[in-house]
Amino acid sequence: MTFKGAMGALSRGAATVVLLLSPGLAAALEATLIAPGAPEELTKRLEQSSAALSAPARGLDSPLELLSSALADYRTLIQILYDEGYFSPVVNIRLDGREAASIDPIQTPARIDRIEIRVETGPPFRFGTARIDPTAPGTMVPPEFATGKPASTKVLQSTVRTSISDWRDAGYPKAKVGDQRIRARHADAELDADIRLLPGPQLRFGQMHVQGNTAVKTDAIRRIAGFPTGEIYSPAHVQKVGTRLRRTGTFDLVSITERETPNADGTLDFDATFEDLPKRRIRFGAELSSREGLDLSAVWIHRNLTGRADRLRLEATVRNIGGTEDIDGRIGFRLEKPDRLGPDDSIFYLGEAERRNRTHYNITRAVLGVGARRTFSDELYAEAAVGFNYGDASDAFGSGRKFRYFGLRTNFEWDKRDNKVNATRGFYLNAQLAPFVGLSDTKSGAQFLADGRIYWDIGTEGRLVLAGRMQLGSVVGPSLSEVSPELLFFSGGAGTVRGQPYESLGIPVGANTAGGRSFLGLSTEVRGKITQNISLVGFYDFGTVGDSAFIGSGSDSHAGAGLGVRYDLGGFGPLRFDLAYPTSGSTGDGLQFYIGIGQAF
Predict the structure, then answer these.
(1) Mean pLDDT across the stretch 410-425?
(2) Does the keyword Signal apply (predicted)?
């Protein structure tokens, strides 16, 4: 018996034979698919989609199971051929020489030793009549849906989806297909398609009704969502509402769905359904290097502190355990309130206390401030904060030096990386400007910081990646001796120049060393995959520090180079191990090693 497609016969395809062994059968099952004259890619797709060919590998080896798989293949293979533009296919599936469609499932054979699938594709079809209307104002029918173009169900479905999407973008959320006439003319190998759309009325946004199991207060959800009641319907607005709510980090599920029936006043209501994430989360981190010793960190997060999706983040870090410097650390908090300013804006409060024990300075400092954040997209944000900064420092210029600042810190971040913890393509840019006003005898000025990174996938699927980084820093206003050491710049260590001791490069001051008022750091890495999870990395880092606000030709510099290994931990990023050696400069101190989680940059 021959099975023919509802519209006809397909082009002559290439032959491929697959041999499957099943331990449940007395002998090997021979399974063959041939498609004389068919393109190789089409033949592979037919093979991969065949339930009969894959049945033994899936543990289906009884005669009834093989027959059922063969019967399912008729529809599957015909649909694939239609998708590729062959509307006159002939498909034969024979089990030990008998057409599968003619075998009574009640009286299946005692055994099946051979499956033969033969596909006659017939000629590829082209569009004869190709019409879809009405179309949304200012839009065009996709160019592949036109008389004389290759015909396929893929093109038909894509054209319908695009045309309905155009109507929805124009404010017609209930647009749908009305009448459609599709006819295959086998003698001419042409497909006629005449599709009528029903756009329905243009609607405006109505109300958003909050549903689901959430501990976030309804009025807070509405303020964060910024639902555009009264505006003309747009799918982009619906997506933006969902993005704003997900961005809070409070919800495990956010679903915004339109109601089936519009309101009598020409508006359309929506249902917003929520499920909350666990309120609390704790995270730990560790990083080890040969000079700085072990750094341990912990973060505790509350995702919904007062029922308004407000996010409290507490951080604690202990540094230099077993290192060459004294143990120090930091504690801090940040409380973010996303409902105070409305959609895309939030207020935050921050504070921190820190003790830094460095080779060239010590400081006890505290910060308290308040700021606002503006989120332009998932990739771009800016924020500004004002606050007080207290510091009590000992450095190359003396001990017990006190610094009091009232400052404004602005921060801009643009992140276009394909993966934040293990990027292979894209770029990242962070820029900060922090003007400060000195209180008491402290001098006023400003600090500028910039960190730019770029990634090129020069292999395939991230197998060979070239990464580059540039860091810039500058302090303008006061002289070197009039600036708190926390605002000055050193070079060396995991964050700047690997292979050089941590913060080993600065500005000589007598027998001591101070930080510089300017900094330039350059890094490059070549990352190559050895296996799916293991990569090798070669890197080179360069840093220079100057005593003026801008790097000059006489500024001291140093560099380091080395090799590293990465083991991919999935969503956590790679486990990192680097060995580095100084290549230039006078601060080198032999081989250094670094262990951490995530790429170096």
Answers:
(1) 94
(2) yes
| Cα–Cα distance for residue pair 228/203, rounded to 1 Å | 12
Please give the Cα distance from 289 to 320 (Å, whole number): 9
- Within 10 angstroms of residue 597's Cβ, the number of other Cβ atoms is 14
| Amino acid at residue number 135 | T
Which pTM value belongs to this model?
0.75
Q: pLDDT averaged over the chain? A: 91
CB 363 within 8 A of CB 232: no
The pLDDT assigned to 13 comes to 35
Classify residue 192 by its DSSP letter. Answer: E
**The predicted structure's pLDDT at residue 378:** 87
Is residue 481 within 8 A of residue 397, CB to CB? The reply is: yes
Cα angle 505, 518, 367 (rounded to 5 degrees) comes to 95
Helix (H) or strand (E) holding 422: none
Other beta carbons within 10 Å of 500: 28
Rounded distance, CA 553 to CA 566, Å? 36
State the residue for tokens 């495990």. 252
Say what angle helices 235-247 and 153-169 make with each other, to 10 degrees. Answer: 80
Residues 6+ apart with CB under 8 A from 254: 242, 245, 246, 272, 273, 274
Contact present, 246 and 259 (Cβ < 8 Å): no
| Pairwise CA distance, residues 407 & 425, whole Å | 36
Q: CB within 8 A of 74, min separation 6: which ones?
A: 3, 91, 93, 100, 101
Q: What is the pLDDT of residues 159-199, one digit of tens each?
A: 999 999 999 999 999 999 999 999 999 999 999 999 999 99
What is the token pair recorded at 33?
Answer: 């698919």
∠288-291-295 over CA atoms, to 5°?
Answer: 35
pLDDT at position 582: 96
Q: Give the DSSP H or E segment for 128.
A: strand 126-133
Q: What is the dihedral of CA 38, 42, 48, 51, to 10 degrees?
A: -60
The dihedral through the CA atoms of 272, 276, 277, 281 has a sign that is positive
Q: Residue 2: pLDDT above 50?
A: no
Mean pLDDT of 489-512: 93
CB 131 within 8 Å of CB 84: no
Of 354 and 16, more confident:
354
